Amino acid sequence: MSDAQDTSKHTNRLIHETSPYLRQHAHNPVDWYSWGEEALARAKAEDKPILLSIGYSACHWCHVMERESFENPDIAQIMNEHFINIEVDREERPDLDDIYQKSAQAFMRRGGGWPLTVFLTPDQEPFWGGTYFPPTPRYGMPGFPEVLLGVAEAYKKEREQVQQNVHKVKAGLQHISSPQPSTDPLTEELLDGAVKDLSSFYEPVHGGFGDAPKFPTPPPFHMLLRQFARTKDQKCLDMTLHSLWKMAAGGIYDHLGGGFHRYSTDGQWLVPHFEKMLYDNAQLVRLYLDGWRLSREPRFKQVVEETLAYVRREMVHPDGGFYTAQDADSEGHEGKYFIWDPAEIKSVLGAELGEIVCRVYDITDGGNFEGKNIPNLIHANGRIEVTPTHPSPLEGEGEGGGEQVMADARRKLLEVRERRVKPLRDEKILTSWNGLMISGVLDAYQTLGYPEHLAMAEKALAFLLDRAYKHGRLFRTVTGGIGRLNAYLDDYAFLAAALIDAFEATGKAAYLDKTRELTAVMVEQFWDPQTGGCFFTGKDHEQVLQRMKTGEDSAIPSGNAVATMNLLRLFFYTGEQNYMDKAEQTLRLFRTHMDQNPFGMASMLCALDLYLAKPKEIVLVGKRDAPEMRDLLAKIAGRYVPNKTLVLGESDGKGTGYVPAAAKGKTAIHGKPTAYVCHNFTCSQPVTDWDALEKLL
Is there a domain that residue 397 lies in? Predict the structure, then answer.
């Protein structure tokens, strides 16, 4: 709903929904339904095609199409006359989004996107679709009224063609969701081949992959870093660190408030679509932590700290848990909250310091975005260097003083920005995305040692286990404190991964117990006993067209890949063979896809790396809260060891009950925190100092 819309004229069924995105459409003149039996039954009764619109609350072009078309009474009249109109929040119903995105891509012969506009038969079968349509012909696209009338006419008079389209799409969906196990071996050649493939479309000037629009895509970079750890192939490290540096310099990063926007519309990371998504920031926290571990670059650590400060400030529910997203738009304009002109900067900081800040962050009279400016460091190659050319305002600051002055300037500008009208925040709490963020926060806690990060992660876990997990089943979302909608594979896999991470961070056996419990439910609900791997929906979930099973990453890691990683980690902790069997079966199922599409299968390739390498099993015995123990843990976390498990045992060797078999009964030496490193069923001699332990890692 636009800011200026008169809500008094129209109110439709979506007013009763809990999704912020659906409620944004509650005052459109369109006769909207949410997805459900009422709408589907009416479509069958009246033999009308369904117009299915899928979007999300932070989507800029979703707001544009709503403002241009769904608020237009004339266009709404065409929609109401010829179609049963259904609006879906893709974040609540990723199953519908996945199926109908893939369907639309078959019609468009290109990538999909949002808003998604798909036309269905009353039996929910897609026969035509696209994404954004303008209200009148432009951008080389037909106007939306023309599309509506053409589709309505085709449905009435060209049913045979409609059915041919349906048959084609259904056959494609069947093929996509029916991978077959490979008998070829699972070897390191798959990992080596993936590096060659990624190198071929790596963009060496600004980093990242491909041209505009450019997305951060953490999974391929994680795969490259694992390859560097395995082979010492320097280009794998260089590609990743260069990309991290360039992203942190660009306008895709919020230099005042921290956190990353969704993606860049250009190739140099300058102009983003301004929405901020929880899942992007969760994944990028971990990627920048890995970059810091391998480079000790202070800028990467700063990005992590600033991003988590943003999350803590803007995205945390008072009872725990993390909100979904912040919108791209405010006051009806994309990016308005985030952009500046020189006069605004100088009015806050004064003329002299303001001039320096404008020069540092590329704030000019001409602007770099619609006459105003997105702060960035691209021209300075990511560096803040102010003292050599403009020393006067910074004299006497000493070493590092210039950076402190700039930090103070950013703080003052952020305080002023906070008084602007903020973008809307989607306050759904999605289980899967929360799992990603909890893992990121725990990784930061282990690496940087800030107690508030552990507190934030454990509070979020407690919130999810209380609100989103009832009677042995998980919910997809928590809205208004109440769990809703059946959970998907991603929800189970990502929350289980967060619980394993919490076990490693705290040594609390209850977290591993809960991981095993959730994994058992996941296997019971999602596992395919015929060919292996997990379906995206549970066995008692509403089935639409095709029960999908894929291993590809999207904007988030593949649920099957994360589930496989969890199964492997559980095997290494417990020694229970059924975990390894299912992990191996899943890897074999997607082996061909890993070979053919390494970029899309990057998370599964990371799981393959763990499977092939076998982890370093680190057992630390001693008092968990002792300063020496905390110091040892921080140093372990500060090393890049991607394939490891970590168990915190007690001084008497009893531990948690989940000590690797070869390490059971190990005790502290002379009362000091003592480390044992086990690999391939053999354990090292006990060590009590970091230098000796570092050599074992």
Answer: yes
Is 504 in the same domain as 387? no
Q: How many whole angstroms separate alpha carbon 197 and alpha carbon 305?
A: 33
CA distance 503 to 513: 9
Burial annotation 488-523 (CB, 10 A radius, 16+ → b, else e): bbbbbbbbbbbbbbbbbbbbbeebbebbbebbebbb
pLDDT reading at 439 higher than 90: yes
In a domain, 458, yes or no: yes
pTM of the model: 0.95
Ranges assigned E (strand) in 230-280: 263-264, 272-273, 276-277
Do the bridges between strand 32-34 and strand 50-55 make them parallel or antiparallel, or are there none, so unpaired?
A: unpaired
Give the end of a domain, one of 373, 406, 426.
426
Residue 47 CA, distance from chain mean position: 39
Per-residue pLDDT of 382-434, as tens digits, reads 677 544 344 334 443 444 567 889 999 999 999 999 999 999 999 999 999 99
Task: Return d(Cα 435, Cα 114) in angstroms, integer.
Answer: 24
Q: pLDDT tens digit string along 2-54?
A: 434 444 579 999 999 999 999 999 999 999 999 999 999 999 999 999 999 99
Listed in sequence order, the residues at least 6 apart from 607 whose beta carbon sits closer than 8 Å to its beta carbon are 561, 564, 565, 568, 583, 586, 587
User: Which tokens go with 441?
Assistant: 């926060």
Residue with tokens 């012909």: 137
Token pair 């519908």 is found at 96
- Cβ-contact 233, 227 below 8 angstroms: yes
Q: At what angle do helices 351-360 and 401-417 cross, to 10 degrees?
A: 100
Domain extent, residue 627, equals 614-697
SS3 385: coil
Spatial distance between the Cα atoms of 345 and 178, rounded to a whole number of angstroms: 56
Tell me how crowded residue 451 is: count the other CB atoms within 10 A of its CB. 8
Query: Both 164 and 133 in a single domain?
Result: yes
Asked whether residue 484 falls in the same domain as residue 603, the answer is yes
502 and 464 co-located in one domain: yes
Tokens of 409: 């300037």
Q: Do 363 and 434 belong together in one domain?
A: no
User: How far is the C-alpha of 580 from the C-alpha of 576, rounded, in Å?
Assistant: 7
| pLDDT tens column, 311-351 | 999 999 999 999 999 999 999 999 999 999 999 999 999 99
Number of domains in the chain: 4
The residue among 660 and 620 whose pLDDT is bigger is 620
The CA distances from residue 639 to 274, 285, 590, in Å, are: 34, 16, 31
Does residue 630 lie within any of the structural domains? Answer: yes
Task: Quote the tokens at residue 262.
Answer: 């969704």
Task: Please state, as a whole number, how many other Cβ atoms lie within 10 Å of the Cβ of residue 135.
Answer: 16
Final residue belonging to a domain, choices 375, 399, 426: 426
State whether 431 and 410 are in the same domain: no
